[in-house]
Write a structure and sequence with these properties.
- The chain is mostly helical and 162 residues long.
- The chain has one domain.
- Helices cover 62% and strands 11% of the residues.
- The protein has helices at residues 2-20, 39-42, 45-60, 65-90, 99-106, 111-114, 125-142, 157-161, and strands spanning 22-28, 34-38, 118-123.
- Strands 2-1-3 form a three-stranded antiparallel beta sheet.
- A hairpin with a 5-residue loop joins strand 1 (22-28) and strand 2.
- Helix 1 (2-20) packs antiparallel against helix 3 (45-60).
- 26% of the residues are buried.
């Protein structure tokens, strides 16, 4: 069980680190201001995936085997559905995570026109892939939780008295 806890905690930490980084940033030509979007800003469902996985992880410890299997399977499906929209956007050739912020700052709504108003457009592919791989592994790793045996320590009479 300790191994399950450690790996789950490590994967959650990796997802949080990757999603809190700036995934895309750029500078506006006219004002010189910088705009950026982190993973949590661009895709709020990453927080939902983390919350679902934490709830399932702690819930699977207290449910009996088959309810834990059903709940974990449903949580995995919900998490993968939440992540599927991220995969769809990331695999596009023209990533425009900061489009809404540039539109608010410049008044230009079309991304192809916005590219004329920004410079130094940078995308942090390492943070994006770290988040996606760690969150996918977290979902797959959570499927293991109902099958992990907890080591039961026999209680002694002195423990109940103290």
């Amino acid at each position: 069980m300790k191994f399950q806890i450690r790996i789950t905690a490590l994967l959650i930490i990796l997802v949080v680190i990757g999603a809190s980084q700036d995934w895309q940033s750029a500078n506006l030509l006219e004002s010189g201001a910088s705009v950026s979007a982190s993973g949590f800003t661009a895709f709020p469902q990453i927080g939902l995936v983390i919350a679902i996985q934490l709830l399932i992880f702690f819930g699977a410890r207290y449910w009996s085997k088959w309810p834990a299997v059903v709940a974990t399977s449903l949580a995995a499906v919900l998490s993968l559905l939440a992540l599927s929209s991220i995969f769809g956007v990331i695999f596009e050739s023209n990533l425009n995570l900061i489009s809404a912020k540039v539109a608010a700052a410049t008044g230009i709504a079309d991304w192809s026109s916005q590219q004329d108003a920004i410079h130094n457009n940078q995308t942090n592919h390492l943070a994006i892939w770290l988040t996606l791989v760690a969150s996918s592994l977290l979902v797959l790793w959570s499927l293991r939780a109902p099958f992990v045996r907890r080591a039961a320590k026999p209680s002694t009479a002195n423990e109940w008295l103290n």
